[in-house]
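Q: Give me a backbone?
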Amino acid sequence: MATQITWYGHAGFKIITPAGNVLLIDPWLTNPKFDKGKDELASLKRVDLIFLTHGHGDHVGDAVEIGKRTGAKLSATFDLAAAMTSVLGYPDKQAGNDTCGHMGGRIPLLDGDVTAEFVPAWHGSAVRKDDKSPPVYAGSPSGVVITLKNGPTIYHTGDTCFFSDIARVSDYRKIDIMMVCMGDHFTMGPVGAADAVKAVHPRIVIPIHYGTFPLLTGTPEALDAELKKRDIKTELRVLKIGEAISF
C-alpha cells in the first residue's frame, strides 16, 4: 500500500500510512478555504494520532473535537500537550508521555509504524480558550519530522521564519517530503521558504500556509520562481485543497 497524503488547506494534512494508520497534522479542517471541511470533519471515523506544531488556533483547529470523537492520541511537545489538556480540554489519557516529547527526541508510535521527532521553529505558541480569553503559555513552537515504516520521511515546518539551523533537520535522515510554510507576514514568504528548501534538500516540497487570509500573500508561483533562481531541483507539488495524492 502507498502512503496517501491529503491537504486540508492552510497547514492541515491527513496521512494514511502504508499499514493503514491515520495521522493528522495541524487539523484545521474548518478553515475558510476548505468548502467541504465540515463534511470531512464529520466523516472522520478513525484517527490514530494528531500531531500539533504549536498552539495557535489556526493549527490546533478541530483537534479537540476530533480527539474526543475518535480517541486519537495527541503527539506534541510536552508543554503544548499540557496546555491542550488543561485549557482546551483534550482528553488527558490521550496526551501522555508515550506520544508526547520534546525537541530532538525520537518518539516511536503505533508499534513502530511511525517515528516522530519535534524540531525547532522560530515563531510563537500560546493557546486561547476563546477570543476573549488571555493567551496561555504552550511552550516553544516546533516543526515535526514523521518517518513512516515502508514509507517516506515527512518534514512539516510548522510556522517559522528562515533560520540557518533548519539545515540540521536533514543531518540524521533524508527528507522525502517537506511541507513548507510560505505565506509571508506571519511566517517566511517565498524567498525564505526557497532558502529553507535549499538548506534541507527534500525530494519533494509542498507549499502550505498561504492564501487562507488576504494577509498571506505568498504564492506557489512565487516560490517556484525563487526555487528556479537558486537552481534547486526539488520537485514542487502544489496541491488543491482536499486533494489526496499517493507516494
Residues 48 and 72 are 5 Å apart (CA to CA). The mean pLDDT is 97. The radius of gyration is 16 Å. The helical segments are 37-43, 57-60, 63-70, 78-86, 190-200, 220-229.
